[in-house]
């Protein structure tokens, strides 16, 4: 390989790390902060006036003011997050520009050499040109890495602010036995709270089978749940049933159930986000037919509450030690396909529920472990004695892109991932990953820090 070939090889590899297409900046998030400020104004307009006096009015006013203040802080954090996304996009754009400038400089220097030089003299003249070009390329890549690490550090700071707001409670949860809970809305002569557990069990069963009316009732119950707040008896019953009845379903069965739900398909993803949020506490339901939730046995949200098939797929079950599994190379591709399916389901849910959840953390962990997997085409063939790597590589890169575009919406989970002990390795592996060219998406390299 000549000195000039060495430069172009180095340049091409560096250029691939910066992806293709226009990087996504933070402009798309401007509307979010505006909506949060609108919500702040709406809450402030609900402050008690002179017609309501006394200690109750004062307590409500204080809580109302605090609530409005939280939305104002969220809007500010949203702007800061958007700014960091723009910073990341600028790092990519500037890196590409510097690489293009380096290539132009090398091309010009080469073209300026006298045409009458012998082959030996020409090669000798190319060495300092190639050396300077490679130095510039290395500096560009190193500076981009350094700048991305700085962005990651600022995300860590924002995480603490998000956590503080996430843990804040505005008012006590609903109390069992209030006027609404004791009403007989179904006319059966018994208070509704006596029936809510059975109704939740039947509605969830019907919803997962495609019943739209039942799905609407499930959606209504889940939509009122706010992490950090006590769940009502109804909310706890419905979330508990969603956790128990999905527990033994395969990834494909979960996807089929989601497709049957039509406009209510978000209840699958939303239930996963809620049941994996450690700020959500709900009663346990045994995983057996006709079981009802038990308010005397409370569960705390976490990734262990997710359906077993989802946990296994995101945990790369039996794949973390591929030498013991060399006779089943297709399992890698199947795992990646399942993760893409999971990410697709998550993409249809309410992104507002993505606040450092166990689901999003598990998805990011999967991408970290997959990027760090030593499996390469030559190693694949040597160990398995079989083909199939291109199929796996395509499924893997599709899944990575899908995870970054969905779990990447969870700013707190991303910050936790990047600030962990393996955060630097994650960024290094992502930077060095060679994507299949036809699968590279302009947002793939930056989506994970949205």
UniProtKB/TrEMBL annotation:
Residue ranges with Basic and acidic residues bias: 172-202
Pfam families: EspA_EspE, TPR_23
Superkingdom as given in the UniProt entry: Bacteria
Domain (TPR repeat) ranges: 225-435
InterPro entries: ESX-1_EspA/EspE-like, TPR_rep_actino
Location of region: Disordered: 166-217
Limits of the ESX-1 secretion-associated protein EspA/EspE-like domain: 18-100
Protein name (record): Putative alanine and glycine rich protein
Species: Mycolicibacterium conceptionense
Lineage per the UniProt record: Bacteria, Bacillati, Actinomycetota, Actinomycetes, Mycobacteriales
């Amino acid at each position: 390989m000549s000195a000039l070939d060495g430069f172009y090889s180095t340049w091409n590899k560096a250029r691939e790390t910066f992806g293709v297409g226009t990087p996504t900046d933070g402009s798309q998030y401007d509307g979010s902060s505006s909506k949060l400020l609108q919500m702040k104004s709406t809450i402030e307009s609900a402050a008690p006036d002179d017609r309501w006096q006394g200690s109750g009015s004062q307590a409500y006013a204080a809580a109302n003011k605090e609530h409005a203040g939280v939305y104002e802080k969220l809007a500010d954090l949203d702007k800061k997050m958007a700014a960091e996304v723009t910073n990341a996009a600028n790092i990519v754009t500037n890196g590409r520009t510097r690489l293009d400038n380096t290539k132009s400089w090398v091309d010009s220097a080469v073209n300026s050499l006298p045409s009458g030089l012998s082959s030996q003299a020409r090669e000798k003249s190319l060495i300092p040109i190639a050396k300077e070009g490679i130095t510039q390329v290395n500096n560009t890549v190193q500076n981009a890495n350094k700048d991305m690490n700085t962005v990651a550090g600022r995300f860590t700071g924002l995480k603490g602010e998000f956590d503080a707001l996430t843990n804040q409670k505005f008012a006590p949860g609903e109390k069992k036995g209030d006027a609404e809970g004791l009403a007989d809305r179904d006319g059966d002569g018994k208070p509704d709270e006596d029936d809510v557990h059975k109704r939740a069990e039947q509605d969830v069963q019907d919803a997962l089978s495609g019943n739209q009316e039942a799905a609407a009732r499930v959606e209504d119950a889940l939509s009122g749940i706010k992490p950090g707040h006590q769940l009502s008896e109804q909310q706890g019953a419905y979330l508990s049933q969603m956790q128990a009845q999905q527990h033994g379903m395969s990834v494909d069965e979960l996807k089929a159930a989601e497709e049957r739900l039509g406009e209510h398909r978000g209840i699958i993803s939303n239930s996963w986000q809620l049941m994996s949020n450690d700020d959500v506490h709900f009663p346990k339901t045994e995983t057996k037919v006709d079981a009802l939730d038990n308010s005397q046995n409370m569960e705390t949200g976490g990734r262990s509450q997710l359906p077993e098939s989802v946990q296994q797929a995101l945990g790369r079950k039996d794949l973390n030690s591929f030498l013991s599994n060399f006779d089943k190379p297709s399992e890698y591709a199947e795992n990646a396909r399942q993760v893409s399916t999971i990410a697709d389901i998550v993409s249809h849910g309410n992104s507002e529920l993505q606040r450092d959840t166990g689901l999003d953390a598990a998805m990011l962990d999967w991408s970290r472990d997959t990027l760090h997997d030593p499996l390469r085409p030559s190693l694949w063939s040597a160990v398995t004695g079989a083909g199939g790597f291109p199929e796996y590589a395509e499924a893997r890169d599709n899944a990575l892109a899908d995870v970054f575009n969905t779990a990447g919406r969870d700013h707190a989970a991303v910050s936790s991932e990047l600030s962990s002990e393996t955060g630097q390795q994650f960024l290094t592996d992502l930077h060095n990953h060679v994507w299949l060219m036809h699968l590279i998406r302009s947002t793939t390299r930056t989506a994970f820090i949205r």
